[in-house]
Structures are given as structure tokens and as C-alpha cells.
Amino acid sequence: MGIFAFVLLSSSLLPFFFVLSYAADSIKKSESLSESITLVSKHESYALGFFRPGNSSNRYLGIWYNNIPVRTVVWVANRLNPINDSSGMLMVNSSGSLVLLSQNRTVAWSANSTKQALNPIVQLLDSGNLVLREENEEDPENYLWQSFDYPSDTWLPGMKLGWDLRTGLERRLTAWKSPDDPSPGELSVGIELHNYPEIVMNKGTEKFFRIGPWNGLSLSGLPDLLKENPVYTYDFVINSDEVYFIYNLIKNSVISRALLNETSSLYERYIWVSEDKKWSLYFSMPKDKCEGYNLCGPYGNCIIGDSPICQCVEGFKHKSPDTWNPDEWSKGCVRITQLSCKDKDKIGFAKFVGLKMPDTTYSWVNGSMNLNECRVKCLNNCSCTAYANSNITDGGSGCAMWFGDLIDIRQVTANGRDAYMQNVYIRMPASEEVNHKEEKDKQKMKVIVIVVVAIAVVFGVLLIPYCISKRANFRAEKMENNVMIDQNIEGQSEDMEVPFFTLATIVIATNNFSSYNKLGEGGFGLVYKGTLIDGKEIAVKRLSRKSGQGLSEFKNEVILIAKLQHRNLVRLLGYCIEGDEKMLIYEYMPNGSLDSFIFDETKAKVLGWSMRFNIICGIARGLLYLHEDSRLRIIHRDLKASNILLDSKMNPKISDFGMARIFGGDQIEGNTNRVVGTYGYMAPEYAIDGLFSVKSDVFSFGILLLEIISGKKNRGSFHLDNTQNLVGHAWKLWQEDRPLELIDTCLKGSVIQSEILRCLHISFLCLQQHHNDRPNMSCVVMMLHGESSLPKPKELGFFVGKKSTSSSENQSSSTNEITITMLEAR
Description:
CATH class of the largest domain: Mainly Alpha
Number of strands: 48
Largest sheet: 5 strands, antiparallel
Structural class: alpha+beta
Number of domains: 5
Radius of gyration: 31 Å
Shape: globular
CATH topology of the largest domain: Transferase(Phosphotransferase), domain 1
């Protein structure tokens, strides 16, 4: 079938320059594809044509999605040899080969077909695969050449990632150098061929991330990744002809792709969300520091959550115990007891559960041996340091053995799916031949029993009056909160006014609350990333059963956010109350919280002054809306850097309204016997006397301003002499006319001096000791965008050092007996 019509269409609004046409899905030997024509697959899923990436003037032949409005290229032919004019032409030459010609009929690219075609036809399939085949071939999948064998940066459903052992062909993903340049970058991913093949991501020639070998059920480094999900299925095939990894979509209506991103150094999976008309990130790898290749060195076990994260496998000790720091981690660990090959009776193997299989470069595999035969063979070889089942299906089979030091180990979890975990047996002195997981569990249980009994004996008598007192306080607090809610919302506490999500829906969306989906942890529980069946990304705040946030506070947060609509407030999508579970479902913020940027030396460099100023103004506008422009007057009471979330464009959104309070239209302040919030952000009148008002939030905003400007936390000691916090240090520099010394060092070169000094001045006005002296947020917003002179700040609140702290301890106690709840970032 030939070309029957074409229409030229271009738009400067699109990220790529494309030439589109109405076309067939194939060309024959006598036909060609020029700059003004595209091929479109049979069901119009994909298109093939010429395009210009980003701001580049070069032109390339590529394949892109034809059925979505965002032009997304998935394959490029001439990555290494762009065409610099509009002379490009794709054709099948006289010898039956597929070639791309540029100016003067020079070959810019050609398909590496090993067979000559008699009646060739080039066809674009609905899978996104461009194929060359004989026109009358009875077997429709007998291709002479296919683009799926030569992937670019995108992995499509049905595309094999791996090796054809018969021809030596490797199918490997390679990232674009940049959005303007599709030539191969440093980042690539493929299957490393040796006795125990595994998927490896490389940066240049160096290993960057190793997923771990296939164990029959999953990849050993990511046992939780491949469990059942509503989007796709995976399969790993290894035989004498091929070794490859492949995935397929469960529903044909879903559009999904995997991408290697050179900019972020990540493998990313996206799903197209038709409602939002955008690509939504489903997951990415590597996810944490432990996934970096061989971070902890030989026999080092990387454990996220431990400090330091690099620990030695039991039976080993740090090679450099006096300098065990991040710079020394790669030196790894050495045996505590050296082994000798002469006396096998003194040699054994310790069983370790939940470890990512070591690097398999120096490994040996036999698929027919059982585990006992594997043990004997490893024991009889002095160079064998560990063994395991190579396949864990049906109870386990096959033998995998390692030789030399064991590297790139980490602790992994399968979130209850223990059948996906692979045991590894490490060579040890016979006296240490134990199951370390079971032994640990026994020791932990003994400690728990002893502690529980001791607590019961020592404090049992005190528990009864404590519980009575606690219950009385809880009832009083509940009455106070209920009165506030009833007065201001008039019975709508039961009518949440937002969609209800079932627990089953949330479980599927978060992969059963997978640790890989965990976004953060705070005083009220965990936050998970989730993806709904339609591809929409969500953030799920799952309240801990031990959380201080009860049902009334939960409903308070739902009711508040349901009524609040502002671009600088996080949007609540729904809630879930089922059994003991209480969850809030928010819009997902891909860039996380503000504190993860400004307090991180590496990520802080991303936030130049212009971006930080936009964030400051956005927070101010959000607070102004809460205080004055919303239907309800809201006092947040826990404004801090970790409660400011950043969307994909780094726009700030205020979150976490669990401790917010509602005021009537003419009410300006309140009093509480239960002070809640975060130390370091509280206004003095609130922390000391329990008085809160809109000016309490203004004080917290002043602290945030200082932290954003300086990149330092206010909480705890700031100055080297350990006598001042951030507020005290900033005020001292201001009075000594040295304010620029406070500015984050990574801002040098991007700072507008007048603007940053104005922000610093505003922060001091917000931090004044007496709340009546502080401006309201409407004034703050005007001051941020104005150029008029600002009033001189008076005495600041919380300007204390060592001496003042000690003297305050001798003051008489307040008439109000209060508790300051110390909350960490949520």
C-alpha cells in the first residue's frame, strides 16, 4: 500500500517540530518517505516521520505516539548522524535494504538487515515497532529487521531488553544526551551476560545501579516491584537462544512507557493520564542511596533507616573502624575470624534472609543441582564464599555460587511476600553457622519479654491513675474540639464533602503500602505515593494507630481542606475510613517537601534565589488566603518547611491541616491548654501561654523566611559557639551590618541583593516578640512586592542563647500548665 495523501502541519507551541500527514502504515520498494509525509500505524497508535527535537535545528527520523496531544518520541533512527536540512528521505533501495538518505543522496542511516529481501515492505505496527519483511511472507512475525531490536531511550510494551545469543545482538536502552540532542548519553541499561545474568544500569563504562538476578519469581534486589498490579506484567526469559526481560500491558487502553532519563540519572516508568493530558510518573529507579552500586564495599550491608546506612554483614567488621564514614564506606568489611581450607569441619555457612543477591560477575550456576548438593560443592571449593538457590519457585532449585568478595549487598523487604525473598548462605566458621534472621528474632523477643515484664512490675501500679487522668483530659479535649467544629461548620463534620476511597482501592494504588512507595514519615504516620487505576498519582497519608491524631482531628483536616481552594494549598482528593484505618488522599507533589531542598547541600543548588523568592511569595499568598480570604478563618498552627510541598514546577503548597483551628468571622485569637506544633517555629505567646492567633502563623512564616534565605534550620544550635539559634545569629548579623553573611552560600551569583535584604527585613518584622507588633499577611504580601521603606523591627521573640536559657529555668512556672508536643516533619 502506498502513500495516498498528505497535509503539512506545524506548530511553534509544540516541544518538537513535526511534519504530519494522512498516510498509510507502510512503503514498498518503489516508494519513499520524505520530510512532508508520515507513516501512521493501522489503528493510528504510532507515527513515523521527521522531527526536530527541542531547540535543535537538526532533523531526525523517529517514531512517536500518534494518539495523544503531547508529542513523545519513542525511537530515533539516525541518533549519531542528524540531517541539517529538509532533504531527508526514507526508502528501500534496489538491494532491499532500508536506508535514510540526506543531502546529495548520502546515507545517513541504514537498517542492519542480514538477509536480502526480494519484495520488501516497511511497515509501522501498532506496537510502535518498525519492521522490514517480505511482502508475501506467510509468517507475519518473520522480520528481516525491526526497530525493537535497536531501542533508543524508551522501552515499549512487547519490546525485549536483553540478548539474542544466536546472533550476538544486544537490545539495550541508552538515554538521550539532552532534550535537544537524541544522540546516546552516558546512561544505559541492559542485561549483563555471565553465568547468572542480571539487569545493570551503567554510567559510561561504570556500573551505576544493579537490580539483581532473576530468581524465578522476581528480581532479587526489588522483590516487591513485580508483584501483581493493575497496569502491566513482567517476564524474564533465559534459554540457549535468548536472555531477555519483557513487559506487557494488562489493559490495551492504558498507554505506558519506560524511559532512561540522562538529566535525573533515573529509569522512569510513565502512564498517560488522558483526563489531565499529561504523562504521570508511575515509579522510578534507583529509589534510595542504598541502590547505588557497591556503596558499602565488600561484605558491607546497606540498610536504609540505620545510622550509618552501611553496616557489616554479621561475622565481619569494618575494615577502617576508626574512620567509618561515607568516604570510607567503599572499603567495606573484613572477617572477624579468618578461615582455613585445611580443616573443613571448622567451616560452615550462615543463612541470611532478605539480602539482595551479591554482584554475580564472579558466579557459577547449575540449574539441575539441589541446595544440599550446592552446599557440598561450595564447601569443597576454598574460593567459594557463598551459595543460594538460583530459582526459588516450588520450594527452590538450582545452584548459584559466588567466588571472591561479596559486593553490592543491601537489605531488602517484600512487604509480607516472603516467598519472593531469596536466602543466601555465606561461608563462616562452623561456630557461627546459624540463621541470622531467626537468631535476631529470638534475641529481640527475649529483650521484649524482659522489658515488658519489668515495665509491668515497676509501673503497673501507676498505670491506673494515669489512665484515669488521661481519659479525663481526652474527654475535655474532645469536647473542646467538637464545640469548635460544631460552631463553625454547623454539623457538617459527618458530611466530608469529598470522595470516599475504599481501602482496597488504596491498597492497589500503593502496591499494598510498599516501602518503595513510601514518601515520608511523621508524628501522625506514614505517607505513600500511589497510582490509581486511571494513572492518576496520589499521596496517601496513613494515620498510625498510635498517632495522636484522633477521629475528630482527622475529620477536622478533611473538613478544612475540602472547603479550601487555592493554588498554594495542597488539594485533598478524598479520604478513607475503614476499620482502624484512617487515610487522607492528596494530590501528589513530585518534588516533595521544601525542607528536602533547602537543608540538603546538593539539592539546595537547584533552588536559585529567583525560585526561592517565588516560593516565599507563594507561601505568603497561601497564608493570606487562610487568614482572610477563605470562607473560614484558618490558623494553621504548624507551618514549617516540611509542611510546604512543591509541585512539578516548584510551586509551593501548604499542607497538613491536622492541627489547624477554625475561627469565626470576627474572632482574632484563642487559647488552648494543649500546645501542639514544632519546636523552633512556635510563637512565644503560644509556646508559653497557649495563646494563638493569625500572628502565630506570621511568626512561623518569619522563621521559614530565615531558613529559606540561609539554608539552615532554626531548631537547635546554629552558631559555632553553641550560644545562638538561627534567629539570634541572624539578628546579630543584622545589627552588626553584616546581613549578607547569612545568605546560603549556594545562592552566590543568583542573588538580587535589594530583594534578599528586603525579605530578611520582613522576616524580622514577623518575628517580633509581641504579636501586636507583627504585620498581618496582607501587609507581608504587599511588602514582598513593594519598594516602600519598611518600619524598624523591635525586640525579637525566641532570641535566646545559653545564658538566657539557664536564667529562664529559674523563673516561676506559668499559671497555665501546658505540654509542648515535639513533632518531627511529616
